[in-house]
Specification:
- The complex is a heterodimer of chains A (425) and B (147).
- By secondary structure, chain A is an alpha/beta fold.
- Chain A has three domains: 174 residues, FAD/NAD(P)-binding domain; 118 residues, FAD/NAD(P)-binding domain (3-Layer(bba) Sandwich), CATH 3.50.50.60; 90 residues, FAD/NAD-linked reductase, C-terminal dimerisation domain (Enolase-like, domain 1), CATH 3.30.390.30.
- Helices cover 22% and strands 29% of the residues of chain A.
- Chain A is built from ten helices and 26 strands.
- Chain A has a five-stranded parallel sheet with strand order 3-2-1-7-19, covered by helices on one side.
- In chain A, helix 1 packs parallel to helix 8.
- Chain A is globular and about 60 Å long.
- Chain B is α+β, with helices and mostly antiparallel strands.
- Chain B has two domains: 86 residues, Alpha-Beta Plaits (2-Layer Sandwich); 57 residues, Alpha-Beta Plaits (2-Layer Sandwich), CATH 3.30.70.
- Chain B contains five helices and eight strands; from the N terminus they run βααββαββαββαβ.
- In chain B, strands 1-8 form a two-stranded antiparallel sheet.
- The longest helix of chain B has 9 residues.
- Classes of the chains: A alpha/beta (425), B alpha+beta (147).
Chain lengths: 425, 147
């Protein structure tokens, strides 16, 4: 009988395994994963499509990770049911696995809106390696692609397509691209860079219909936008976002909101059952509430906390926030927390914009505490700013330095330098 | 595990730590060649932080619960089980700068290629790291810390 059972072998499952093994090297541990392949980095699937990374290079932990961690890894196996009273997980092959501690790290699945023709050959989602493999095969013959959604995933797949020489049209429902991460100016800078790479960006529109090459043809030939415009293409990639994979939990006593509800130990309302990663609503320290934040680094961090608690070491999750760092067509962009408060009352906003360098910095303050960070094309100091934000340090005495080139650790007041153990032997 | 400790009280801000770090991470290991011949010039992984009159040098702290390791998207940043140090695998790095976003110390820099991260490796091949050995005022010292 395994002591620990983890459903899901991506970021959060990996984080949990590492945390459990740090504390309990011997307790029996079973991991159940629908995907049959070894552990890999999902954010890297666009590098796979562009040809930059082989699957081998995408393996985010060393060869034999499961074996080295003494894990019974049931790869290519789907969990189909939970019996919380009996403490068992049932598998598709009829087997039942008993657990003492369970982690639900089932992740998210791509959100696909209702569109006529979405079942046509040539429509792809883009979250898993199998999606990337199927897409890469299609790209052998495709020449033009429509990408629906201009967020993190949509832009990273677009970049991969451009590298492969395809003609790409991005369709975004919001009036601006990257609307969850950047304000208008930041969005404009990136939009400009993407357009320069030859990509057509259409905002304020969605796809209402996917058409065949000809009437009744099962192969994608074009899309019809909400304004009636037709865009020809050989493939459509739906990259709008992910929704939690909660199907195992529906109908059980585990509390479910949009995702699985957890406490600050990543435990659900059912004792011994934990949830983390894209399926869970974890703590956001900026909003001071729990919510879905489907981001790889947070999934690992939450999995680590869940794992530590499962192994008996009381650990609190410090929280994450909406945050990402990525290079868009070569331009590094970091966005953390509140990028653009809807109502600016009560906020102080510091900005610096140097168009000739494509440089943009914006710090959003509330009561002299950083609540939002946007850095375009100079991200070197992002981590220190994030540290100040996360620890709610007042920047009152040096706020005019935070977006300037003179900002450094030496600018921080002595008390903070001491807390960080800087320059104090 | 070794950790390099800076003492801002005696740091003169001369920047020799950066100079000798650059040399140590050059191909030639020669000051003149490293600075004048090698293109692009090798990168110092230690950073002298200055806001006069305060100055001190900082490099990777090899944090106990290192945020860069947790956050790394590709698995390039990891903890070496034997030494306890945070090590970076250039071959696996995808240059997304997620580690840069979460390092409080700003200790992760963009490599000269502009494509991957570079960090302090504590000069494992030397008995004393180059920045410490060449600090003229002993503002940098090595301390053994528990891992």
């Amino acid at each position: 009988m395994p002591k620990y059972v983890i459903i899901g072998a991506s970021a959060s499952g990996i984080g949990a395994v590492e945390a459990i093994r740090n504390i309990d090297p011997v307790g029996t541990l079973t991991v159940i994963s629908e995907e049959a392949c070894p552990q890999y980095s999902r954010p890297m699937i666009s590098d796979f499509v562009s040809g930059k990374a082989t699957f081998q290079r995408m393996m985010c932990r060393e060869d034999g990770f499961w074996k080295q961690n003494n894990v019974d890894a049931l790869l290519g196996t789907t969990a189909t049911g939970l019996n919380l009273r009996e403490k068992t997980v049932s598998l598709e092959n009829g087997r039942e696995i008993h657990f003492e501690k369970l982690l639900l790290a089932t992740g998210g699945k791509p959100f696909v809106p209702v569109m006529d023709g979405s079942d046509k050959d040539g429509v792809f989602t883009f979250t898993k390696i199998s999606d990337a493999e199927r897409l890469a095969e299609k790209l052998e013959t495709a020449r033009s692609v429509v990408v629906i959604g201009a967020g993190l995933i949509g832009i990273s797949v677009t970049e991969a397509l451009v590298k492969r020489g395809l003609k790409v049209t991005m369709v975004e429902l919001q009036p601006k691209i990257l609307s969850l991460l950047l304000d208008e100016k930041g969005s404009d800078i990136i939009e400009n860079i993407i357009q320069k790479a030859g990509v057509t960006i259409i905002t304020g529109q969605s796809v209402q219909r996917i058409m065949g090459k000809s009437d009744n043809d099962p192969t994608v030939g074009s899309v019809i936008l909400t304004n009636g415009e037709q865009v020809k293409c050989d493939a459509v990639i739906v990259a709008i976002g992910v929704v939690p994979r909660t199907e195992l939990v529906v109908g059980t006593e585990i509390k479910l909101n949009r995702g699985i509800v957890v406490d600050n130990h990543m435990q659900t309302n059912v004792p011994d059952v934990y949830a983390s990663g894209d399926v869970a609503e974890a703590y956001d320290f900026t909003l001071n509430q729990n919510r879905l934040l489907p981001l790889w680094p947070l999934a690992v961090a939450e999995g680590k906390v869940a794992g530590a608690n499962m192994a008996g070491k009381k650990t609190e999750y410090a929280g994450g926030t909406n945050m990402s760092s990525l290079k868009y067509f070569g331009i590094p962009v970091v966005s953390i927390g509140v990028a653009n408060p809807k109502d600016a009352t009560g906020y102080e906003i510091l900005t610096r914009y140097e168009p000739e360098k494509e440089l943009y910095k914006k710090i959003v303050l509330r009561d002299n505490v950083i609540v939002g960070i946007t850095l375009v094309n100079d991200v070197e100091r992002a981590g220190t700013l994030f540290h100040l934000m996360k620890n709610r340090v007042s920047v009152k005495r040096f706020k005019h330095e935070v977006i300037s080139d003179v900002f450094s650790l030496a600018v921080l007041p002595a008390s903070i330098r001491k807390d960080m153990c800087l320059g104090c032997a | 595990m070794k950790r390099i400790i800076a003492n801002e009280q005696v740091c003169m801000g001369c920047g020799l730590c950066e100079v000798y770090c650059t040399v140590q991470h050059s191909k030639s290991k020669d000051l003149v060649k490293a600075y004048n011949k090698e293109k692009p010039r090798p990168l110092s992984r230690v950073r002298l932080e200055v806001s006069k009159p305060i100055s001190f040098a900082i490099q990777c702290r090899n944090c106990e619960d290192a945020p860069c390791v947790t956050a790394c998207l590709s698995g390039a940043m990891k903890r070496d089980a034997e030494t306890g140090l945070v090590v970076h695998d250039k071959e696996r790095c995808i240059g997304c700068w997620t580690c840069v976003m979460v390092c409080p110390y700003g200790a992760l820099k963009t490599d000269v290629s502009g494509k991957v991260v570079a960090k302090c490796d504590l000069c494992m091949e030397l008995e004393t790291p180059a920045c410490v050995a060449n600090c003229p005022n002993r503002a940098l010292t090595v301390k053994q810390v528990k891992t």
